[in-house]
Each structure stands twice: as C-alpha cells, then as structure tokens.
Amino acid sequence: EAQVTQNPRYLITVTGKKLTVTCSQNMNHEYMSWYRQDPGLGLRQIYYSMNVEVTDKGDVPEGYKVSRKEKRNFPLILESPSPNQTSLYFCASSLEGRTAYEQYFGPGTRLTVT
Amino acid sequence: RKEVEQDPGPFNVPEGATVAFNCTYSNSASQSFFWYRQDCRKEPKLLMSVYSSGNEDGRFTAQLNRASQYISLLIRDSKLSDSATYLCAVIPLSGYALNFGKGTSLLVTP
After folding, report:
1. Is B45 near chain A, with CB under 8 Å?
2. Which long-range contacts (CB under 8 A, 24 or more apart) does B65-69 make?
3. pLDDT in tens, A39-48
C-alpha cells in the first residue's frame, strides 16, 4: 500500500529535550515536506526537500532541522523544543515539487512541549 | 496580505444543498492549484486539482479565474459525509512550496 508513515503519532515532552519525528514514504517520491498546523494559522511549511541531500527552508523553519540522506526518509529534528512548537505536524511527499502532482500526507504527529 | 485566503466559515447547509467556496491568491505567477479535504484531526487529502479549463468530478466542480486570482469549489447535492474542512493550495511559479489557505469549514446537516 502506497503511504507516508510518521512516528510517533503522539508525543509529550519537556522543554529542551531533543526529539526526532520520523517520516517515511514507499512511493519513490522525490519531493518531501514538513508542515505544522495550528488553530487559526492553518498549514505552514517548515522545510522541504527536492531530492536526496537537497533541502530548503519553508515559511517557519526556526527551531527545526531536517536531513534527507535517503530518498524514502525525511526526519524532522527539534534540537531544543519549546512550548511554542506544540502543534500538529504533517509530513508529505509527491512525485515532484514543482508540478501539479498530488501531495500525500502522513497521518500526523501531535506534539506537546511542556 | 496572506498569499492564499479563504473564508473560514463555518458554512452550515442542509443535505441536498449546493454550496460554493472561494479562495483568493496574491501571487499572479502561481502555476498550480488544488483543493484538499481535511477531516477533523486527520491528514489533508487531495480532492481535486484545478485546471485552467475547470475540473469536474461527480458532484464537485472546481474553477480557476486567473484574471481575478481566485479558485472556486462548488459542491452540488451536499451529503452528510461532505462535512469537513476544505483547504485550497497554490504552488507559485517561483517556488516549490505548497501554500495553503487556512481552510473553510463545512457542516452538512440532515
């Protein structure tokens, strides 16, 4: 089954404790992206990757890091989480980024930073 | 001005009604347009792409108006299962990001 998976689905952590949210897709997609969704603010892009070893900032990259060492994986790293990073996070992938291809979203990771 | 704007609603309509949503975008060089559907606390899923010539899929019709820089979604014969948040999304010519509107909430009632 073609899908995007994220882990963990739910996470409660404390300020400053480094964490990684994993994202993996099995569709051989070149483009992958991370979004956060907050009430009243909608979906905002954090980082995206056009292909292996190619990443770029989205609209809200501060406090986040990413890496793309393999085509299928695109982990999101919070080196020192803060409460304002409490949010619902989605990973997405598509065949390419700059064409009218469908973006497939993972099921989401609900992160709470206390 | 936000790049993609939508009326947040909520739109409350009875079953069988026709409802229309609009979404405006500010970047005239935008090249690709989409409507996504998002159920509560779930991931967005593509509803339909929006082509220059319009696009129809069953009860759903999407239109693009480049001159006025908006896209629209028309839902005919609304079903209870259409209740969701509808997100419009735009890819600008100059970038690779998918810019989303904040979404329009639809509630279809019996």
Report:
1. yes
2. B66/B28, B68/B24, B69/B24, B69/B25, B69/B26, B69/B28, B69/B30
3. 988 899 999 9
